[in-house]
Every structure is written in structure tokens, then in C-alpha cells.
Amino acid sequence: MQQSLLKNLRARSSTHKHIKLAQKLVLHIAEQGLAPGERLGTENELIEQHDMSRATVRKALELLEREGFISRRQRHGTFVIRSINLSQDLRRLRGQVMIVIPAQRVLSPDINLAYFTGFQSIVRELGELGFSVQVLCLGGNLAEDRQKILRSMEDGNLEGVCSFSVDTTPFSDLFAGLPVVTAEGYRATTTTWIGLDVQHIIHSLVGHLLDLEHRDVAVVCGPWIDTATFAEFVTGCRTAYQERNLPFRRDRVLTAFEGEELIDLARNLFATLPRPTAIVADDSRVCQAILDAAEQVGLRVPDDLSVAAVGQNVLGIERPVPITAYVPDNNCIGKEVAKLFAQRFDRSGSRPDRVWLPGELVVRSSTARLTR
Fold it and tell me: Which one, of 132, 160, 170, 150, lies nearest residue 9 by Cα?
């Protein structure tokens, strides 16, 4: 039964005929110079002219009426109600993008400012380019998630899927034939992906600390970092050392094991001799654990230990001092997502598989030049 439903959904959603017809009618209005009040044609006339089904023509006209291009009068036909500006109006005739987010994520700037900002920018920028948006929370039960997706696809208007920190691999059969754009921190996927250039970020943070005369810099990652991403952390750190002709210690790039408390990892790091004089954390959670462990063992930031970390959420940490951070431009997430969907929808421009978000190093009082 599910396979039959999938086949039916794909037949209805993969060609987007009504949207293409709506665009064609707008082009016709512009090319013919039809003024407000002039007649476009009846539903039957348009069916014959464009060799389309009644359902497709009706959906196209409903879209044009909803967007304020036309009005329909029963038994009289369809009439233009405003002039066309092609550069703006064609962008308004696009379909729907489904944004899938983890069910456990709380969309609150007070809890996770970085995630909230990125999500907000995706919704805003897609809307600016004329896409309608539906948000779907997935996670926990695969069978229930599949049913959620199928129900959301029933109207046949889906143009693409934006995964914001969700692995869509289990649903690849449902999304077959649709463009899928993944926006997710560090972890590049097999689909079109927007995220962070880990090598560049770690290279920037470690390089900053090395330039402050620190020679023993540790990099600490949480258990959520996968093997391939961890290798990027190692490479970024190694490159910063090599560029300065300094010896690199591979054992100073650490990751927590699944189930290991981050504060325990930090305590063990501080117990090693010689103790590192500077630490780079992969996000605000790791950074906070390092600060808590440092306080427990009597290390002062930045007098005894310089600390830097990755992400916008790090800027919210003010105690014991404001933390130095590499901050991605989360507002660019939405711009890049919208651009990729627009290119696929309009069949224009190049289509990169990887897009790296820009960012900047925000130097604050948690790092200091090593004087001893």
C-alpha cells in the first residue's frame, strides 16, 4: 500500500506542472502587454491552448489568483488585475520547501541562539524568493516519521527538502526526485550540503593561540563529532603548527567517547603533565565543561589557561570572562539554502555540492599572550 501511495505522490509532485503553467501564463501576460481588466481566457480555453488537465489548469489559476495576478469570474473567464514585473513576479510562483528539524530541538534564542538564528534565516530567505515553507519535526520513531512525511506530501506541491540538522538517509525513497539541501554544522553528507569549514575554523583558532606564544594547545571535541569530521579537526590543528614550524602533538586533539561526561574529559586533560596552556572547544557545551573543570582545579582564565571555542552560542558565555570564538555567519545559512533551491527551480547557475559558511574570529578576554 505504501509503495502505491509513493508512486501516486511522485507522479503528482515531481513535475510541478501547475507551477510551470502559472509561470507560462505570467510570461504570456507580460509579452502580450495585457493591462489590468483584459481577459486571459476561460478555464476550458486554457485547457485546450496548453493541452493540460483541468486539475492542472485550475491549480495554476488558483495560484495566480492567490498571488494577486488575476481574478476569475464564473462563465466570463479570467482577467488580469495588475501589470507584470517579470524580475520580481516570476520569483513568487514557486512551490513549497519542507524544512525538517530534529524533534528534540527547542527553537528558542535563549536556549540555542545559533540554531534559532540559522532556522529563522532559512524561513525568511526562502519566503523572500517566493517559496512557501512547511516545518516538520522528525526524530524518535522512524515509522511515525515516515507517515508524517507522507501526509505532508499529499497535496503534491512539494518542490524540495531542506534538512536542518536531520539525517534524511532513512527517507531517501520518499524524497527521490526532489532536491535535498542539508544545512548541518560540521558533517558533510552525500546530498548538497551547507556547513562549516572545520579545517579553516580550527586552523584559525589554534593559529591565534600559537601567535600568543602558546605552544601546547589542546583541541577538545564532544562525542557527537564523527570520525571524518574529527580528522578535519586534526588536520586544521596540524596545519597551524606546521605553518609556524612548530612540533605538533596528535594526542592533544581529543574527543569524548559516547556516554563520557565532558567535564571528566576536561579534568583528565588538566591532570596530564605538562598541562596544556590553551584549549579550543568544538562548541559551547564543551567550552562550559572546560571552564567548570578549570574552576574545580583552581585554574584561572586567562591567567593560567587560554580558552577559545566554535559557534555563536559561545558568545553567550561571560563567566569567568567573555570567551574568544570563531563565529559563523548564521544569517548566510538561509541565503545559501534559498539560492540553491532557486538555482534548481529555475535551472540556472552552477550547482555546487558543498557551500562553506563564512565566519569571523571574535577575540575576547579569554585568551592572553603567554609570558612565562
Answer: 150
Q: DSSP secondary-structure letter at 69?
A: S
DSSP tag of 46 = H
The string of pLDDT tens digits covering residues 248-269 is 999 999 999 999 999 999 999 9
**Domains of the chain and CATH, by start:** 17-92 (1.10.10.10), 96-196+331-359 (3.40.50.2300), 198-328 (3.40.50.2300)
Do the beta carbons of residue 21 and residue 58 sit within 8 Å? no
Q: d(Cα 209, Cα 202) in Å, to the nearest integer?
A: 11
Cell numbers linked to 289? 565543561
Cα atoms found within 13 Å of the Cα of residue 106, Cβ hemisphere only: 6
> What whole-number distance in Å separates Cα of residue 251 and Cα of residue 265?
13
- Listing DSSP states for 74-131 in one string gives TTTEEEE-S---HHHHGGGS--EEEEEEETT----TTT-HHHHHHHHHHHHHHHHTT-
Position of cell 535563549?
110
Which cell is 258 given? 559516547
pTM higher than 0.85: no
Amino acid (1-letter code) at residue 16: H
Q: Which residue has 509503495 as its cell numbers?
A: 3
**The three three-digit cell numbers of residue 157, written as one number:** 506541491
Render pLDDT for 157-206 as a digit per residue (tens, 0 to 9): 788 899 998 889 899 999 988 889 999 888 766 678 899 999 999 999 99
CA distance 282 to 117: 19
Q: Which three cell numbers stand for residue 306?
A: 587560554
CA-to-CA distance for 139 and 171, rounded, in angstroms?
Answer: 12
Report the distance separating Cα 146 and Cα 160, nearest Å: 16
Grid coordinates in use for 140? Answer: 524518535
Q: How many CB atoms lie within 10 A of CB 246?
A: 12
Which three three-digit cell numbers place residue 28? 504570456
Q: DSSP readout, 230-299?
A: HHHHHHHHHHHHHHTT----GGGEEEPPTT--HHHHHHHHHHSSSPPSEEEESSHHHHHHHHHHHHHTT-
